[in-house]
């Protein structure tokens, strides 16, 4: 059913008021994430200058995604004016466009290029290439990185770095497009030092691009194919948008999932596996209910009771000048490292004393296996290849227990910048009203 002029004017009026909300209520000062919902909806629909009946299905899809986003952030937005305005606006637009509350949503948002702009070959539809689905004048997608290696250390999508126990099976990634699960087992009998011995990746079926595919790797078995023996996304028209490439036989494979803009690197170093991924933020956040989602290591990190006090362990080793294992009465390891010999060994491959270097030292002390030095080295090599911000490759521990008046250097400038941006934006909005 088409909509009348009054409904169209109301919808367009709502579109015009959205930027005002984006200015007046800066998200940097509130846990309420309604502005993210507003901006996603605005970006998904801003290309439509008129709202005719032929656009109703696409518009309804964007509205449902908008409504779903507001429900996810409802808990932290109860007193937020922008939130309540958005909720009422969505209800009105749902009625005006005869949109059903049940139906598909639009995450991730895969834009359609104007005719003539697509450079995709006929065997790979445009929707099956995430980057090319963005218009040439649109802002490029934001990419993020997660990595898991060693005994085990994780760098999350938010660049948090943790050392964890996490023995057994744990979800590493869990969103609408793929699942990754790792299994960590003890390095030595009786030891609490663990490393990744099994990895399972499930790529879910996606439109006309790919069939569901499963990739599995275990100790001493790093296949260069999916579990069904194939090396691409199956029989669909865009199957080549998912592909496995063997870089080094039995040691290094790379999976390109172009339809979701994702690159995955899996290595076997010694007997154990490492994992690294580059993924658009939009795909990372494509989950049904992020607030109530189960544990997801790349997004939330390890639970507190699974984290190891990395700094305390390192300090004790440096003070005592000898290797001390995490578990009591461990059997002899292939090589007994002291803090000094472990440090010297790690400097051979990791000259910068960042957290990758410290992880290397930690792993040599807890396992005695020199292959863990190589795991840290290759993990950092993968970061250099996959991380989008080259200024954030190295991570360092923050200064602990800073007293009043002795804040970390990055604290005040960020707060001042956020305040300045809010004042500028508010000033612009008031000017628009006058």
From TrEMBL:
Report keywords, A-Z.
Autocatalytic cleavage, Cell membrane, Disulfide bond, Glycoprotein, GPI-anchor, Lipoprotein, Membrane, Signal
Using the UniProt annotation, give all residue ranges assigned to the region (Disordered): 101-124
What species is this protein from?
Answer: Crocodylus porosus (Saltwater crocodile)
Localization recorded for this chain is: Cell membrane
Q: Which N-terminal residues, if any, form the signal peptide?
A: 1-30
Q: How does it sit in the membrane?
A: Lipid-anchor; GPI-anchor
Q: Which residues form the Repulsive guidance molecule C-terminal domain?
A: 142-388
Highest taxon, organism lineage: Eukaryota
**What is one term from the GO cellular component aspect held by the record?**
cell surface
Query: Pfam families in the record, alphabetically?
Result: RGM_C, RGM_N
Q: Which family does it belong to?
A: Belongs to the repulsive guidance molecule (RGM) family.
Q: Per its record, how is this protein called by name? A: Repulsive guidance molecule BMP co-receptor a
GO terms classed as biological process? BMP signaling pathway; membrane protein ectodomain proteolysis; negative regulation of neuron projection development; neural tube closure; neuron projection development; positive regulation of membrane protein ectodomain proteolysis; positive regulation of transcription by RNA polymerase II; regulation of BMP signaling pathway
Instruction: Specify whether Lipoprotein is a keyword of the entry.
Output: yes
Gene that this sequence comes from: RGMA
The Repulsive guidance molecule N-terminal domain extends over 32-101
UniProt-recorded Gene Ontology molecular function terms: coreceptor activity; transferrin receptor binding
């Amino acid at each position: 059913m088409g909509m009348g002029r009054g409904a169209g004017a109301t919808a367009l009026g709502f579109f015009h008021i959205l930027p005002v909300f984006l200015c007046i209520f800066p998200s940097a000062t509130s846990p309420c994430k309604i502005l993210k919902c507003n901006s996603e909806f605005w970006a998904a629909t801003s290309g439509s200058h008129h709202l005719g009946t032929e656009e109703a299905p696409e518009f309804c899809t964007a509205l449902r995604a908008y409504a779903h986003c507001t429900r996810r952030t409802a808990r932290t937005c109860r007193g937020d004016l922008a939130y309540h305005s958005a909720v009422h606006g969505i209800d009105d637009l749902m009625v005006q466009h005869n949109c059903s509350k049940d139906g598909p949503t639009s995450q991730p948002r895969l834009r359609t290029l104007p005719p003539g702009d697509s450079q995709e070959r006929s065997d790979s539809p445009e929707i099956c290439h995430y980057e090319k689905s963005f218009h040439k004048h649109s802002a490029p997608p934001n990419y993020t990185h997660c990595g898991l290696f060693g005994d085990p250390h994780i760098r999350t999508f938010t660049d948090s770095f943790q050392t964890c126990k996490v023995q057994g099976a744990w979800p590493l990634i869990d969103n609408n497009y793929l699942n990754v699960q790792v299994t960590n087992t003890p390095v030595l009998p009786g030891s609490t030092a663990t490393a990744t011995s099994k990895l399972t990746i499930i790529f879910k079926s996606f439109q006309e691009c790919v069939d569901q595919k499963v990739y599995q790797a275990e100790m001493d078995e790093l296949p260069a194919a999916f579990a069904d023996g194939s090396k691409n996304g199956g029989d669909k028209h865009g199957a080549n948008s998912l592909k496995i490439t063997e870089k080094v036989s039995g040691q290094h494979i790379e999976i390109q999932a172009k339809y979701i803009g994702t690159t995955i690197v899996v290595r076997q170093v010694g007997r154990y596996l490492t994992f690294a991924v580059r993924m658009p933020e939009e795909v990372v956040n494509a989950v049904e209910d992020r607030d109530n989602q189960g544990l997801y290591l790349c997004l939330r990190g390890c639970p507190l009771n699974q984290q190891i006090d990395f700094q305390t362990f390192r300090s004790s080793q440096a003070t005592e000048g000898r290797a001390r294992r995490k578990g009591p009465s461990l059997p002899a390891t292939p090589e007994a490292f002291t803090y000094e010999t472990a440090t010297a060994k790690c400097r051979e491959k990791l000259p910068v004393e960042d957290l990758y270097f410290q992880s290397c030292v930690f792993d040599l002390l807890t396992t005695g296996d020199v292959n863990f030095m190589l795991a840290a080295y290759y993990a950092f090599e993968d970061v250099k290849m996959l991380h989008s911000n080259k200024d954030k490759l190295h991570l360092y521990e923050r200064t602990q227990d800073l007293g009043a008046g002795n804040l970390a250097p990055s604290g005040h400038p960020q707060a001042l910048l956020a305040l300045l941006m809010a004042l500028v934006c508010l000033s612009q909005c008031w000017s628009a009203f006058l």
